[in-house]
Design brief:
The complex is a heterodimer of chains A (117) and B (112).
Chain A lengths: L2 E5 L2 E3 L5 E8 L8 E6 L5 E7 L6 E2 L8 E6 L4 E6 L8 E7 L7 E2 L3 E5 L2
Parallel strand pairs in A: 2-11
Antiparallel strand pairs in A: 1-3, 3-8, 4-5, 4-9, 5-6, 7-8, 9-10, 9-11
Chain B lengths: L3 E4 L2 E4 L5 E7 L12 E6 L6 E5 L3 E2 L7 E6 L2 E6 L8 E7 L6 E2 L3 E5 L1
Parallel strand pairs in B: 2-11
Antiparallel strand pairs in B: 1-3, 3-8, 4-5, 4-9, 5-6, 7-8, 9-10, 9-11
The chains are: A mainly beta (117), B mainly beta (112).
């Protein structure tokens, strides 16, 4: 069974940094692209970042490009999201997702990031 | 960026009836390889989203055949025949043909 477990969320001040982790199990991690998607409270879904299975290429929308960095440790079956220069509009639940038949075939339970002073 | 416009914003359906959700794209979603990267997701209350449909009309593993995706180019539809209580939630269309990847704003399905 595919399992994705995110950790690392919490309350952080504007301008500070936070690093999220996602531990994967139930599949061969280094065979799949992975992504982060987020959802602001009461709002819709927004794609945040994707990474190839080797980690050699990464992709971001303009809203986080230059501030967020997606990475992975295939030996540890772990996906990361380093978030710098956080803004209030980054407040959201962040989901770790795995590519499958669809772009986000599997989702974790999410971790809440609150950016506030 | 590609804008996906979902209608209606909300939908109230009697159990056993059909529901239909439209997703209109600001650009064609057919990729140069001939594939159309249009997907549908459902977020049930208090849960993470789940994949329903990929490639316009293919049901993901375990998705009942009551869920039917159709469309091409810029116009897509998700039909739910014989709505059941567990179908309530917010439905999102999503495109991965163009960068950046984008979601529609969602359609909330309520049960009458």
């Amino acid at each position: 069974e595919v399992q994705l477990v995110e950790t690392g969320g919490g309350l952080v001040q504007p301008g500070r940094s936070l690093k999220l982790s996602c531990v994967a199990s139930g599949f061969t991690f280094n065979n799949y692209w992975m992504s982060w998607t987020r959802q602001a409270p009461g709002k819709g879904l927004e794609w945040v970042a994707s990474i190839t299975n080797s980690g050699g290429s990464t992709y971001y929308p303009d809203s986080v490009k230059g501030r967020f960095t997606i990475s992975r440790d295939n030996a540890q079956n772990t996906l990361y999201l380093q978030m710098n220069s956080l803004r209030s509009e980054d407040t959201a639940t962040y989901y770790c997702t795995r590519l499958g038949r669809g772009w986000f075939a599997y989702w974790g339970q999410g971790t809440l990031v609150t950016v506030s002073s | 960026d590609v804008v996906l416009t979902q209608t209606p914003v909300s939908l109230s359906v009697t159990l056993g009836d059909q529901a239909s959700i439209s997703c209109r794209s600001s650009q064609s979603l057919e990729y140069s390889d001939g594939y159309t990267y249009l997907e549908w997701y459902l977020q049930k209350p208090g849960q993470s989203p789940q994949l329903l449909i990929y490639g316009v009309s293919n049901r993901f593993s375990g998705v009942p055949d009551r869920f039917i995706g159709s469309g091409s180019g810029t116009d897509f539809t998700l039909k739910i025949s014989r709505v059941e209580p567990e179908d309530l939630g917010v439905y999102y269309c999503f495109q991965a043909t163009h960068d950046p990847l984008t979601f529609g704003s969602g359609t909330k399905l309520e049960i009458k």
